[in-house]
Amino acid sequence: MFSPGYDVRAIAARRAYKANPWFRRGTLFRSALDVMKRATEPLTVAEIVDRMLAAKGVTSARMDQIRGLQSAVLASLRNREGKGRVQIADNHIPARWHLTP
User: What is the reported pTM?
Assistant: First the structure.
């Protein structure tokens, strides 16, 4: 079945998927949109995540969980940038996001 000379070290180990305890699949971006709809000014990803967790009533999030959420929200915002929903506001650093009018 397998060739004895095949180098199995080239096969990458499969990583275990860690489910997000607060946001089910497909709800993260919608939660970020809800936060952005209620905001009066453009928000950074950290501010968006803080408000998302506050809306869910989460107070015991670890720093690695918060950073994971920030990465996921940033990736979803970047994927949808310029497609009619969200955009970056005027070259701020860190980037501030808002809904397109």
Answer: 0.78
